[in-house]
Amino acid sequence: xxxxxxxxxxxxxxxxxxxxxxxxxxxxxxxxxxxxxxxxxxxxxxxxxxxxxxxxxxxxxxxxxxxxxxxxxxxxxxxxxxxxxxxxxxxxxxxxxxxxxxxxxxxxxxxxxxxxxxxxxxxxxxxxxxxxxxxxxxxxxxxxxxxxxxxxxxxxxxxxxxxxxxxxxxxxxxxxxxxxxxxxxxxxxxxxxxxxxxxxxxxxxxxxxxxxxxxxxxxxxxxxxxxxxxxxxxxxxxxxxxxxxxxxxxxxxxxxxxxxxxxxxxxxxxxxxxxxxxxxxxxxxxxxxxxxxxxxxxxxx
Length: 301
Fold this sequence. Notes:
Layout: H1 10-58, H2 60-68, E1 71-72, H3 79-92, E2 98-102, E3 109-113, E4 119-124, H4 125-130, H5 133-148, H6 151-158, H7 160-175, H8 185-229, H9 232-246, H10 251-257, H11 284-299
Parallel strand pairs: 2-4
Antiparallel strand pairs: 1-2, 3-4
Helix pairs in contact: 1-6, 1-7, 1-8, 3-5, 5-8, 5-9, 7-8, 8-9, 8-11, 9-11
């Protein structure tokens, strides 16, 4: 008997839980070591990073839209798009987000915002021109699942200490110790070297873990879209079209969109730029395989 599609994907949830636990353990060990070495410096840079984190979370929708060149549209300006979002929000029991359109030929979409009540779903003009309405619904359902799961906040918080590690690395690399260890000049050089190595290790390992978590959350959003629409094939068809058309987009346009790669439903990846270990999204084949399994589950209900 097939597992009900509305049941939780316990394997996926376990992977996300292990990844988050690993991040937490890494941060405790890494910053415990840095606190022992340079408590004053660490406190300063955590405060700075925390301010950046709050600003990033609070203004995430505005920053993402400004970066992408998107504009908020009203129901009068985009009636069909708003009607789709209205239907999907009712099905997902989700407050309606703002709806935006990005003026680019690249077929893509993303969701952003600090909460379910303060969020934005954006689609590109290229996506609306290339996909059929049922495929656009699949894409929108994927993005609404990100809103439902608060993925923007989750990923931003997960990145917090990686930002701290990056700031600390730059501080130790550029300025070294300007004080706080003056009575132990002989050992200060070694202490700085250890601090640099710890910062680099924390940043690199957390970077890999955060990208892993991002891939898992994309799987979860694909699953959520299938549950909302009850038609995984809609999203599968959309992903295949987006993937095929992405190869025709000029590299200049893809380069401009790379800064928001982790937000988009399909990453605007430059040729040969990312290995699977550092990818923000799962391979297309893996996503399609999951959607096929979900289709089989739906047929068995």
